[in-house]
Input
Amino acid sequence: MKQHSAPTIYIQLKNRVMVPKGKGVTLGDIAFLIAEPELKESLETILLMKPEQSDGNLILIDLLMVIPRIYELIPNADIEPIGEGRTIVQIESQVERRKPSVAMFVLVWLLLFFGSALTIMNFHADVNMLEVQIRIVEMLTGHRDEHPYIFQIAYSLGIGFGMVIFFNHLFKKKWNEEPTPLEVEMYLYQKNIDQYVINEEYSKMRRRSENQSENRED
Output
């Protein structure tokens, strides 16, 4: 009699996913799967949990929660995990997103514009940039000009052009595929938030486990 070999299932949990409020979280929502076609469809529909109001809007799902559910469906499965063993589920509210306010955009733009301008002006005042520019013009032309407007205009344009090159971004246009410094900072910020959420959720799990152990002993 020919024995069937155990089906191999490769599973890679996604880093972060968004699920609409009120919808159950399935394996297909949080993971990439490689398996036989007839098994993959069944695996993707496995319901892992039904988020409750008390769970909050961020939920951590660990691989140790996923594997037993797979074994319930396929007891003899050979599971091969890939990558991180956890994923963060963000519950998305059904409230319609408001359109960006033009007035708020203009207000923030003006605040950033004048704030940046004052910062640059104060820096130039601290280092006496005017005297430096006068001295540079005198060294280049041999004449002292108390108001080197041409040099100052070129210097101002150079600051703007340098900022565009540094941030690799002008409105919606990027000069190359490299991430901008702002994108890198946002990525690191999101990564730190995810790590904090993971640590907090694991702490909650440990506290629940300790409380359950104490209750059983009582």
